[in-house]
Amino acid sequence: MVNDTGQLYTIEGIAAGLILLLTAFIVVNSTSVYTPGDTHISDMQLEVLGSDALKMMNTAPNSTLGKSPLQTIVETEDTETFRTMFLTIVNNRAGAEPDNIHYLANVTYVNSDGTINSIPLGMTDRLYGGEHAVRVSDWVIVEKQFPGCSAQSCSGKHATLVEVLLWRD
Amino acid sequence: MAGLKDDAQWIVLMGFVVSFSLFFIAIVLNQSTVVGQTTAEAVLEFPKNDIRGVRDVIIQSAVLDDEGGVFNNKTTVQNEIRILSLSRQNSVVNFSSTPPTASNPYTYVDIHYNNGVTVYNETWRSK
Fold first, then answer.
1. Do both A6 and A40 map to the same domain?
2. Which residue does chain B place closest to A46, by CA atoms?
3. In A39-115, at which residue ranges do the beta strands (DSSP E only) sit?
4. How many angstroms away from the CA of B53 is the closest CA of chain A?
């Protein structure tokens, strides 16, 4: 004959176990842990946005053989046009409120002796170190004489890299 | 074993079950903080935009001309692409182009890109 005096205790034990499991489940589910992987997702989106913006600016109107807006901007060092155009593209979003993306842009070129130099292409805000910026870049071939070489051989076409750090405030 | 009271065996067993369950839930929670990190890192590390950009500019440079004399546009631009890739994008790029001939009307550009992790090779052909 089976001794069945512990039946009530058994039921209580199972009930307690279920309650504990349920509690743990609710606790685990109610807090979403913002993992390092999740921060990378917004980085990836920002990177895509920035490189798309540069690509748009580096496309000549109606796919003609003329100069793209970015080419003209680099050749004339027109930081104001860059600012207006870039911010319009990246801050544009559905709804009334524009986004609040900041940038810091540079044009990197090669000196006549093969070393690298950069000239600023404007910024909306200084980088203080706390910002979480991503870097995007696009190549532009420009017809420009960069500072540091005034010789005739330094004019003509040059490959430059427009590099933009952008972050959301 | 004479005087042993064993009425609460089920309770003890349930206690074990519950504690093990909690233990496994803790492991799952612990793992959830790192899941996705390697995936996202792999995506961020993959130089999709760098490759697209350098491929684009190499093809553009292939149709430039060396006028000889003062400007050597093509040579200058192509050298600068190599230097800038190495210093700003940590990648070694090498490329060469084959101009059209009488029997073959296409321009071919061989593109090699290597940043130590990702290698990309392509032979581009003009339309």
1. no
2. B44
3. 101-110
4. 6
